[in-house]
Write the structure tokens for this entry.
Amino acid sequence: MKNSIAALYLIVVAFNFSCGQDTANQVATISDTPFTPELLVEDVAIPWGIAFLPDGSMLITEKSGELILFKDGQKNTLSNVPEVYSRGQGGLLDVAVHPDYENNGWIYLSYASEEGEEKGGHTAFTRAKISDNSLTNSQLLYKGSPNTTKGQHFGSRIEFDDKGYVYLSIGERGARDDNPQDITRDGGKIYRFYDDGRIPEDNPFVGTEGAKTAIYSYGHRNPQGLIKNPKTGDIWDNEHGPKGGDEINIIKPGANYGWPVITYGVNYSGTPITDKTAMDGMEQPIHYWLPSIAPSGMAFITTDNYGADWNGSLLVGSLKFQYLELLKLNGTKVTDRIELIKGLGRVRDVVQGPDGLIYVGVEGKGVYKLVPKK
Amino acid sequence: MKIFLTSYILAVIGLSLYFFQDPALEASMQRGNEIYADFCVTCHLEAGEGVVSTFPPLAKSDYLLQNRAASIRGVKFGQQAEIVVNGVTYNSAMPSPGLEDDEIADVMNYILNSWGNTSDKIVTVEEVEAIQK
């Protein structure tokens, strides 16, 4: 009897496993890549975020707190950058440039900050202008609270949509049972603002008593990828799950992405978090990674620079397996996964530059440019 | 009789070691376990096994057990240097985790006394304070 139970269990496990390993959950390698990686910006320990100014110069955040302006082949460190809380996963995080930068000069930063009463830190969101290699006109737009000394899950990415809004992700700060499902608390959320930090009147929880009204969606764990889909205008995220639960989601107003009530992952120790992967009223990811790749950074290829076949594909960095992943899409369905630049290092960010080429931030190295082969 | 006596004495020593472990070390390890789960586990993994060629193992790591001061320095200030651990070369950067000295002592005591590692001397806050960059 005991043996037959064990056998049944094994069959069920094997069946589930084989079903989980469809093509969307197997990463392929290719022998002939259509590009050569070229180390463009050297010696950046952790290039956390990358953004381009209209003149083609590049802003790079280094996690420990340096903001680098790379222009005409020269690295300049900007002064007057907000002080960051360097602990665990916290530090200087993302940088973004306003879509109308030419006229208004605003850049946006997210970072871990000690601002506030309590000991510890939480994710902050600031905009500023650049003048003579220094930040000026700094305005703190949002600050998560309360601070905590936990080292985990600050997020964070910044992205603009086509309608004048700016989105910010904040991770659940290592308090999965307190933050992600509670819209009166910060963390485990994606937020939406006007570009000056005001909260849009039609944000989904405006009018809900006690709610943090900047919240746009909730039930997230630690989103470190945020990108506008250039075809639909929708905002997509990728987020670190627990072991086996990394996800890509399409962000909808007021939606609950389920963490930690539903997840495809388990604790790092292998013990279960929940037996549920789906529930009414909670969103399903369009993709989850098995095993986890530890995703960071996200970009769409919108040109034929790397071949027409790759136009419209999604790129995601893998911290854990140290490669850049190309995900081919059919609408919102992942059809194929390809492993690129394996072994260069932990891929922290990926962006498509104004020249239509792909730039990749690699820890311990700097920023690589993927130069198309003729 | 001789064999009996030897095993008897050994058993007594073993049991007293088991029952009278340093309570200060125990408490420090317990706090260190929480620090480990927050700051270290994503790379060095649950059983300190690491990832070959990427994140060095801590479990039964010759580097860790033979380079106590350098290991504390790495946790205190971060580390970017080529090291060889159990015959495998590692060259990934470890950013400074930003821990307080007491937290570093706790997490060192945890990793030095877990997964088959043993250390005969407790890491104290004073020892961590004395380590310079």
Q: What stands out?
A: Residues 62 and 86 of chain B are 6 Å apart (CA to CA).
